[in-house]
Design brief:
Strand content: 15-25%
Distance between the termini: 148 Å
Amino acid sequence: MDTSPFSPPLPSVLIVDDEPDICMALGDFLKHAGYAVRTVHAGRDALREVEGGQIGVVILDLGLPDMSGLDVLRGVKQLDSLLPVIVLTASTQESHTVEALQCGAFTYLTKPYNSYELRFALRQISDAQKLASKVARVEGDLSASEERFRTVVGTTPDAVVLADRKGTILLWNQAAARLFGYTEHEVIGRPLTLLMPHRYREAHQMGMARLGETGEARVMGKTVELHGLRKDGTEFPLELSLGIGKTPEGIFYSGTIRDITKRKQSEEAQRQAEARYQSVVENAVEGIFQTTPDGRFLMANPSLAQMLHYDSPEALVSTIKDIGRQLYVDPRKREEVRTLLSQYGVVRAFETELICRDGDVISVSVTARAVRDQQGIVVHYEGTVQDISERKRLAADLLEEIKVAEVTRALGDIGHDVKNMLMPVLSGVDLLREEVQEILGRLAARGEATQVEASRKVSDELIEMIVNNTRRIQDRVRELADAVKGVTTAPEFKPCRVSTCVDDVITSLHRFAAEKSVALYAQGLESLPVIQADERRLFNAFYNVIDNAIPEVPPGGSVTVRGQVDVGANALVISIADTGKGMPPDVRDALFTTQVVSRKVGGTGLGTKIVKDVVSAHKGSITVESEVGVGTTIHIRLPLNSGR
């Protein structure tokens, strides 16, 4: 017998026979072969032994004293249908043999028994039991594997569906039932298209046909995103992983299905959030940026590109490689921003100046923060830039307006005070004239007529000059008062003789020129034609030119006013020439512009502006000739026609 470690242990043998000699001989034989042996002599005893268990093989004699051996055989099979029974009997009737085999006997041997036949029968039983053990083990493994498979499939949160090569559903787990709304009974044996929206069904049928013809499956082994159709007719997004397998019964397909509704909703929410963020960035009025700490742009929005006069954000990002040197007017400001971000992590409303692509300079306010990684290392800066150029300009304009308002208020106060102070001057001049006349009359009565006449002439001249200039001051103060009130006095064009106007200026400045030992001359003015002009304004213009020239002329020098008519230009030309120091080209060229700077102590440069404004009001022009060490000549051209 096979007693290897891999063989099952030899079964115990129950001998059922009423002949003691046979029982003894057979028992010795079996014990020698390694079997455990039990012996009974009656059928009922045999059935009790079998019922008690622990019997592996029964050797049964059909001729028993208490009951038929065939009945015993039937009783054994009822107790244990798998228990092998070897019939060993002296009966040679074929009917007994057939009936015994029909009742379940393993084999039928006749007495006297042949040891080789018995050993062969026992070996067959042993082999059969080994095979049965293997089959049972395999079936157990298969059953366990199937149970594990069903447990895994049944407990997995994903829907699992198996289908045959025709697309008929073979397996349906609980997750699939929850997902689609169908019970297992409702879907087993039905086509997979039951779970698909109509738009997918044609493609599915074509794919199944292609797989059957060519064995090609485009989506097998892949994960795809589709839509499923629930029992209630609603669709939902799903993720499908497909596999293929083969069994003796044929090909089958497996599908693992996951509901990705929440994931899709999350993705859509994220997409919408990104779209909103992108919209904010793209449409923001302020410039928005991300930069590296070393000064390169990672991102810029259209407003920032437009602010810096670039065609697009891409052009700005690709052009600027060093923000500090290429954008900041003062690169130290960029370093200051970096220092603040390093220390505090944020900087707010930092004002600086940036250089635009075309070279323009704008004032900006920068707000930024440092973005760090998990180790605390700065990975980039991000923030906003606001163009505050207009705001700063408006602030400067407002400050200028405040200054102008304050100056206007002061001028109003001064004008008012000057007007009040001039009134007693004029009254005093009248009293002075009467006093001088009275004194000169007493001197004439004493016989000093010659001296009196000279004094009278001088005093009349001085008093007349005081009166005329005081009235001119009153007129100017009146203009000042009107200007403070917001009223601009328009030029008053009337027939005017330039010679008379110039004579009045020379008379007013005669004493000042004499003190400087400077001679004042008027040449060729009497022959000039009458023009339409504002005589008061012309007086101011000539007065300022001559008054400015006198201090520049050394003692013994002169200031000469000449006039002529330029027939071709239909203009009157008044030339005021001095023999003074002259001017360098830069001073000469700026003389009647907003850049003029007075060279007199306490001078403001307003005199030349007054002259330019008067000439412009008369639609005339001014030119200057000057040579250092030789002198200066100013030409004023006035049209002969009406100045209106």
